[in-house]
Structure formats: structure tokens, C-alpha cells
């Protein structure tokens, strides 16, 4: 089978490898689509520690072509989305339903304490517990199950209710999935802060009520003026300044959620008195749980989330480095790789 291998920092090579044999409790999936994520870009550029050679790609869907001896829930020919996060299911965190925080987490092609080869390949093996049937949902749509699962988990972390006001800082692919996830929760108003015109427009089309341009208007003043202070603000950029901005937007009792990946050594200034007196919360959200993945697949299968408009670039396996270059330049929204083409 062909794989796109990260041979060294900023070097992707197409290699011929043996097809993996599924283990007793695994399935082998023919990868029909795999999304490109900023995490892949970080690994490509060497900003994330990865062993070389490594096959990246953790947002995939396809068809089961072989099953292990102990798998009885699935059959050859079943179409599935793959959850790349494999927890141990035995540790305290796992037993408490917080599998994303498992210290022994393994990621199939993504970022975790342990990483195995992912889905920028013609075939990938996964534990049977990590795949979710998708019936006839197009693979391009099902490949959003992982990033959408992260958004479902994030909104769970917020604990917001219908009619609460929420701000989303950054309307890249994740910000636009968050807007739609908030929308299906009945959250409103939803306010977006995003400097790129097209992304602001798309955010409004996909369910945001207000979209402000932070390069023209100071976000906390502009948002306060349009909807007042919000119950929660989600930072989906990963910069100190925007995290601080998000915190300034929340009301007393409000929550700021860090979703974007900040640099490891970044620090922010914060008034502990505000946390105390205003009962304001500062939270993080990392990856997804088996439950949020399964709910994301349900949302996609029932057409509650529009992902078609997020796919701006389509590539063959051989063009993966081009996808990274374009992502690095901030062009386009979601790039999709089709290993069978
Ligand atoms: Zn990702
Ligand atoms: Zn565990």
C-alpha cells in the first residue's frame, strides 16, 4: 500500500509498505478520506515531537476490509469513521469517563503520549472499539467526526444552556464547527470574532448571530455593545492575546475555554480577584472522549452540521506537502486527502 510518510521535518515521502494485519481486536480500514489538521502541520514543521518516519493523519473515514478474530460487532464492507484516540480503559481517569486525559493515551496518527501510524495511507488499522458505523454518509463528511468530536467535548466542558450568550474567538474550521455545535445546543446569541472577511461571512451563514472584525473594532467593546458580556467565550486560535481577550468578554459567573493550542511556554496575566469575586472560570479542553466521538457521528449522520462548505482543498496522497504549505500560509479552510485517488 502507498503511505505518505513524514521522513524528516518538512519532508513527506510516498512509500510502498505492507498492508497492516489487523490484530485480534482490530479492524483494517481502507481510507477513503482524511482531513488535514493544524496538529499535522505542527508535526510536519517540527513544532511537535514526533518520531520519524511517521504516517500522520487522524481525521479519517473509510470501509472495513479485514477484521480480527475477536471482532463480532463489525463486518467487512461496513463503512466507518475512525476515532484516533485510544485510551487504556483501565486507569482512574478512564474509569471516571475522562478517557481523553488517560496518561497512556495512544493516538493513531495524531498527538498523544504514544503515537502510531495514521491515515495518510491507503489502509489503517484501528481497535474495533474506535470505529463508528456511518452507513452511507460520504467519507468526506464522516472524516469530520474527530474534529467535531473535539467540539462536542468542548461544548460539554462549557456547561452552557439554551439561550446563553457565547463568543467564539477565531472562525477557522474549528471555530466554524463550534458555532454549529453551539447552535444545535440552542445557545444564542453566538458572537464570532474573526479578522478574515470570508470566514466571518461563513460564520454568519452557519449560525452565528454577530461577527466582528477584531482588526477594526476592539473585541471586548464591540461584543459588549452588541450582546453584552457573554456567559462563555471559547478561544479557538491558541494565542496569549486572544485568550486574554476571551477572558475579558465573559460576565460574572462566566467561563473562558482554551481550545486553540497555545505555545508550551506561553503565560498570561490574570486577576485572581476576578476569579474569586466574580466566580469566573478558566478552563481547557483537550481532544475528545469515546462518547463525544460517537455523538459527533450521530450529528453528522443526521445532517445537523454542515461540513461541505468547510472543505476548500482536495488532494491526492502525493500532494500532502502542498496541503501543508497552503495551510501554513493560512489559505483555505479544511483540506481533505483522498488516498484512493
Ligand atoms: Zn486534529
Ligand atoms: Zn486510561
Low-confidence runs (pLDDT<50, min 5 residues)? none
Average the pLDDT over all residues and give the rounded result: 96
Determine the strand fraction and express it as a percent band: 25-35%
CATH H-tier superfamily of the largest domain? Medium-chain alcohol dehydrogenases, catalytic domain
How many strands in all? 18
Which outline best applies? globular
Helix/strand-derived class?
alpha/beta
Seen as an oligomer or otherwise, the chain set is single chain
Largest sheet: 7 strands, mixed
Measure the end-to-end span: 13 Å
For the CA atoms, what is the radius of gyration? 20 Å
Query: How do the helices and strands follow one another from N- to C-terminus?
Result: EEEHEEEHEEEEHHEHEHEHEHEHEHEHE
Q: Report the total helices.
A: 11
Helix content: 25-40%
Supply the number of structural domains: 2
> Ions, cofactors, ligands: which are bound?
zinc ion
Which fold name corresponds to the CATH topology of the largest domain? Quinone Oxidoreductase, Chain A, domain 1
| CATH architectural arrangement of the largest domain | Alpha-Beta Complex
Structural account:
The protein has two domains: 2-144 and 307-338, Quinone Oxidoreductase, Chain A, domain 1, CATH 3.90.180.10; 151-284, 3-Layer(aba) Sandwich (Rossmann fold), CATH 3.40.50. The protein is 28% helix and 27% strand. It has helices spanning 38-45, 92-95, 139-142, 145-158, 173-184, 197-205, 219-227, 240-249, 272-277, 290-301, 320-328, and strands at 2-8, 11-16, 26-36, 60-67, 79-82, 85-86, 106-108, 114-116, 123-127, 131-133, 166-169, 190-193, 210-212, 230-235, 250-258, 281-284, 311-316, 334-338. The mean pLDDT is 96. Bound molecules: zinc ion (2 copies). One zinc ion (ZN) binds at residues 87-88, 90-91, 93-94, 102, 104. The site of one zinc ion has 8 residues, from helix 2. It comes from Natrarchaeobius chitinivorans.
Amino acid at each position: 500500500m502507498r503511505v505518505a510518510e513524514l521522513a524528516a521535518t518538512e519532508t513527506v515521502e510516498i512509500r510502498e509498505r505492507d498492508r497492516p494485519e489487523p490484530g485480534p481486536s482490530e479492524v483494517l480500514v481502507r481510507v477513503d478520506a482524511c482531513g488535514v489538521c493544524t496538529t499535522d502541520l505542527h508535526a510536519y514543521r517540527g513544532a511537535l515531537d514526533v518520531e520519524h518516519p511517521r504516517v500522520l493523519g487522524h481525521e479519517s473515514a473509510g470501509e472495513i476490509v479485514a477484521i480480527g478474530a475477536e471482532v463480532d460487532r463489525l463486518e467487512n464492507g461496513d463503512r466507518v469513521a475512525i476515532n484516533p484516540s485510544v485510551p487504556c480503559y483501565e486507569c482512574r481517569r478512564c474509569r471516571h469517563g475522562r478517557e481523553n486525559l488517560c496518561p497512556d493515551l495512544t493516538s493513531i496518527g495524531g498527538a498523544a503520549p504514544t503515537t502510531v501510524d495514521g491515515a495518510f495511507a491507503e489502509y489503517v488499522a484501528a481497535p474495533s472499539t474506535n470505529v463508528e458505523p456511518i452507513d452511507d454518509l460520504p467519507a468526506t463528511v464522516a472524516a469530520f467526526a474527530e474534529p467535531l468530536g473535539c467540539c462536542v467535548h468542548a461544548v460539554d466542558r462549557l456547561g452552557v444552556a439554551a439561550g446563553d450568550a457565547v463568543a467564539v474567538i477565531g472562525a477557522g474550521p474549528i471555530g466554524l464547527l463550534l458555532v454549529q455545535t453551539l447552535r444545535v445546543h440552542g445557545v444564542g446569541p453566538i458572537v464570532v470574532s474573526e479578522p478574515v472577511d470570508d470566514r466571518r461571512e461563513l460564520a454568519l451563514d452557519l449560525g452565528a448571530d454577530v461577527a466582528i472584525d477584531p482588526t477594526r473594532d476592539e473585541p471586548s467593546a464591540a461584543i459588549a455593545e452588541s450582546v453584552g458580556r457573554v456567559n462563555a467565550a471559547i478561544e479557538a486560535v491558541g494565542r496569549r492575546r486572544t485568550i486574554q481577550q476571551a477572558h475579558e468578554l465573559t460576565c460574572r459567573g462566566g467561563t473562558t475555554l482554551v481550545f486553540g493550542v497555545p505555545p508550551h511556554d506561553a503565560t498570561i496575566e490574570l486577576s485572581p480577584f476576578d476569579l474569586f469575586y466574580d466566580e469566573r472560570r478558566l478552563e481547557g479542553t483537550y481532544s475528545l472522549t469515546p462518547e463525544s466521538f460517537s455523538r459527533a457521528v450521530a450529528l453528522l449522520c443526521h445532517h445537523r452540521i454542515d461540513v461541505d462548505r468547510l472543505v476548500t482543498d482536495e488532494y491526492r496522497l502525493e500532494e500532502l506537502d502542498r496541503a501543508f504549505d497552503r495551510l501554513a500560509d493560512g489559505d483555505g479552510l479544511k483540506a481533505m486527502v483522498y488516498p484512493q485517488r
